[in-house]
């Protein structure tokens, strides 16, 4: 059995010692939307909803950005983490194409919001490469590429030489998809949290939600 190793996330290590902080939740409040969890999804949702005038309250059990986002790959992907052919086989062309277009729209909107808010998270354009190292994998990749082209989704094939030259990877072939991005995830999370607060949202750290009870016309949360 291998020896476990522990360390500090690269993204956490890059942060300045002083980081944003938010008060514990105390008292009672009535809001339109309560969000449990202060990661990337929670903070971005708080920003989006507060922008359209919703009264938003976000509860985080520990600190904003302290969960999985601090150890993420930092990639903003324009497609779901599944092959297009698998979604097409399961749900049909129309549904598969809609899913791909929606996720692409979401990725573009996220990067646009980051730039609009001037969040200092160093967004950079990145390509994604899906490669195969055996004939079976190459056959599957070629089917994937063909189906994507039929659905009018952008992708291109990389030969062995192109893959070696462009990505320094030794494999039998690959699909390259452009239009993804890389950002510093914690700075992005903090940026959306700050933007949400500026638009009227309230954020509370060290405020774990202990109970959620749903009624007919409301939901009650207790910390």
Automatic annotation (TrEMBL):
Any Pfam family matching the protein: DAO
Entry-linked InterPro entries: FAD-dep_OxRdtase, FAD/NAD-bd_sf
Any one annotated GO CC term: cytoplasm
Start and end residues of each FAD dependent oxidoreductase domain: 32-216
Signal peptide location: none
Protein name: FAD dependent oxidoreductase domain-containing protein
Natural source organism: marine metagenome
């Amino acid at each position: 059995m291998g020896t476990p190793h522990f360390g500090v996330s690269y993204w956490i290590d890059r942060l300045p010692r002083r980081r944003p902080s938010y008060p514990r939740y105390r008292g009672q409040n009535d809001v339109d939307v309560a969000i449990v969890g202060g990661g990337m999804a929670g903070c971005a949702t708080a920003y989006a909803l507060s922008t359209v005038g919703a009264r938003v309250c976000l509860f985080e059990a520990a600190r904003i950005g302290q969960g999985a986002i601090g150890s993420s790959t930092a990639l903003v992907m324009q497609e779901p983490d599944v092959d297009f052919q698998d979604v097409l086989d399961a749900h049909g062309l129309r549904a598969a194409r809609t899913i791909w277009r929606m996720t692409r729209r979401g990725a573009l909107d996220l990067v646009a919001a980051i730039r609009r808010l001037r969040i200092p998270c160093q967004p950079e354009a990145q390509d994604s490469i899906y490669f195969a190292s055996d004939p079976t994998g190459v056959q599957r990749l070629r089917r994937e590429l063909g189906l994507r082209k039929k659905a009018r989704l952008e992708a291109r094939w990389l030969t062995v030489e192109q893959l070696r030259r462009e990505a320094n990877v030794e494999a039998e072939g690959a699909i390259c998809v452009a239009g993804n991005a890389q950002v510093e995830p914690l700075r992005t999370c903090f940026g959306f949290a700050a933007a949400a607060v500026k638009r009227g949202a309230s954020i509370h750290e060290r405020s774990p939600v202990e109970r959620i009870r749903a009624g007919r016309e409301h939901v009650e949360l207790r910390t």
